[in-house]
Amino acid sequence: MTDFMIGILGSLAASAILLVLGLLRGSRPVWWLVAACSRCTGTRIGRVYRHQSSAEQDLARDLRQARWVKVLAGRGNVLTREVFSPLWSAEPSPQSVQILLPDPGPREDSWLDRRSQEVSRFDPGFTRGLLRTQVRTNIDYLTRVMQARAGIELRTFNLPNNCRVIATDRAAYLTFYSASAHGRSSPCLYTRAPGILYTAALRQFDATWAHATPPVPAPPP
Question: Is the distance from CB of 76 to CB of 99 less than 8 angstroms?
Fold first, then answer.
């Protein structure tokens, strides 16, 4: 029993150390140490980005090499940026792309509205309807993309959107949204397959996908 407890405490300590190192430095020279510690704990964390936005260059490279892609996002703005453009173009692209975005439709129990209220506490320009409008705009963009390219599926969900998951057959990028910061300013974890965090990310995506539905077309203006 003593050896078992020591092993658990050692794993927790290693996890804490690698996260602190990644968040404080966030630079390439310490990534090898982060990866080495994560192998001991089974988390398979390869990198820790201080801000989600700083992961986009590496994410773009992984997307170009992916056989499939799964995206669960709280807003989906990254889907319209250059990082995802190779997936929507005529270049070689993944065999399948599954995308989950919050349901922007009006409803009394909207988790999207809850997130809007949360963000408005630290961003006064963030009105209740702004996030809904942004999600709807991104859905319209993806709808046009799907008309030109096969292999893309889009569904919407009404569940707590407290994290972003972008997963491929090789790795996953995980961002846990803070109640006091935008997602782009939150730390992002890069975890390799197979591993505890990678498996958890896919389980989160698959569970949400199973309860999601195709987006309802926006009413004409």
Answer: yes
Q: pLDDT per residue over 6-60, tens digit each?
A: 343 344 344 444 454 444 444 454 555 555 555 555 567 878 888 888 899 999 9
> Biggest alpha carbon distance in the chain?
67
Higher pLDDT pick, 132 / 124: 132
Nearest Cα residue to 74 out of 50, 54, 94, 104: 104
How buried is residue 221: exposed, middle or buried, by Cβ count under 10 Å (0-12/13-18/19+)? exposed
Burial class from Cβ neighbours inside 10 Å (0-12, 13-18, 19+) for residue 6 reads: exposed
**61: helix, strand or coil:** helix
Distances (CA, A) of 35 to 31, 70, 78, 135, 194: 6, 23, 26, 35, 13
The whole-angstrom separation of Cα 36 and Cα 41 is 9
> Which is nearest to 162 in space by CA: 215, 119, 108, 127?
119
Q: Are strands 152-157 and 163-168 parallel, antiparallel or unpaired?
A: unpaired
Structure tokens at 91: 């270049």
Residue 167 and residue 177 in contact, taking contact as beta carbons nearer than 8 Å:
no
Neighbours of 111 (CB within 10 A): 17
Write the pLDDT tens digit of every residue in 86-122: 888 866 678 899 999 999 988 888 888 888 888 878 8
DSSP symbol at 125: T
Q: Is 212 within 8 Å of 73 (Cβ atoms)? A: no
Q: Is the Cβ–Cβ distance between 172 and 165 less than 8 Å?
A: yes
